[in-house]
Specification:
CATH topology of the largest domain: Globin-like
Radius of gyration: 18 Å
Order of helices and strands: HHHHHHHHHH
Pfam families: Phycobilisome
CATH superfamily of the largest domain: Phycocyanins
Number of domains: 2
Distance between the termini: 24 Å
Oligomer: single chain
Main location: membrane
GO biological process, one term: photosynthesis
Organism: Zarconia navalis LEGE 11467
Strand content: under 5%
Largest sheet: none
Number of helices: 10
GO molecular function, one term: hydrolase activity
């Protein structure tokens, strides 16, 4: 896994040149936005169980056959595996967001995921739909645009966040979710 600093060093080393001023400016920006990045990761991690369970519930509401006898979320052990996998994907998205680099997501989560799910008979369309719901929920938490009407009064939770616009971090996180969707499709 490479963070922004390691990536700059590796890039400069491969071209046998010092780190250029453009890279230094990128790193300064990365550090300046550090509290926002940490807040974004915290917003996802603190709400992970709700994000995942809501995504799986939403996926099942759209395809109730998944919880019927013979469905991919029946019996309970398959449902538990589905929830576990959703939490794993979400955890690796937060790792990528924290590092500002998708290599950990690609190497440790997405490498071979489609083939594994195909071998296990996991329906790709349902899995993709769950990831899409996690993406929407996570970006709402990052930008602090989640509302009580969307979450319900028992699950509603807004986080204290650093001042400023977090739309670029939400976009970055959305890109990581899109990588997951692409790997499963």
């Amino acid at each position: 896994m490479l963070d922004a600093f390691s990536r700059a060093v590796v890039s400069a080393d491969s071209s046998t040149s010092p780190i250029g001023s453009d890279k230094i400016n990128e790193l300064k920006s990365f550090v300046a936005e550090g509290n926002k990045r940490l807040d974004a990761v915290n917003a996802i991690a603190s709400n992970a169980s709700c994000i995942v369970s809501d995504a799986i519930a939403g996926m099942i509401c759209e395809n109730t056959g998944l919880i019927q006898a013979g469905g991919n979320c029946y019996p309970n052990r398959r449902m538990a595996a589905c929830l576990r996998d959703g939490e794993i994907v979400l955890r690796y998205v937060t790792y990528a967001l924290l590092a500002g680099d998708a290599s950990v997501l690609d190497d440790r989560c997405l490498n071979g995921l489609k083939e594994t799910y195909t071998a296990l008979g996991v329906p790709a369309t349902s899995t993709v739909r769950a990831v899409q719901i996690m993406k929407a929920s996570s970006t709402a938490h990052i930008t602090n645009t989640n509302t009580e009407a969307q979450a319900g009064s028992s699950k509603f939770r807004q986080m204290a966040v650093a001042d400023g616009d977090c739309s670029s971090l939400a976009s970055e996180a959305a890109g990581y979710f899109d990588r997951v969707i692409s790997a499963l499709s």
